């Protein structure tokens, strides 16, 4: 694979180690990075689980 090309991220998981994904998820969910980190620490990196928790 050529350098500089990004692989399509797995949108079913939230990767807190990737700045691009953190920016995507904070924008997509309308929350801060610290709130996102708290949710991932609490319930795991499943995007569906995080969305479910936010809808409560």
TrEMBL record:
InterPro entries referenced in this protein's UniProt entry, alphabetically: DUF3606
Pfam families: DUF3606
Name of this protein: DUF3606 domain-containing protein
């Amino acid at each position: 694979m050529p350098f500089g090309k990004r692989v399509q991220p797995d949108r079913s998981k939230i990767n807190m180690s990737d700045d691009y994904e953190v920016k995507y998820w904070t924008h997509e969910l309308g929350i801060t990075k610290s709130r996102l980190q708290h949710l991932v620490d609490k319930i795991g990196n499943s995007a569906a689980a995080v969305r479910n928790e936010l809808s409560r």
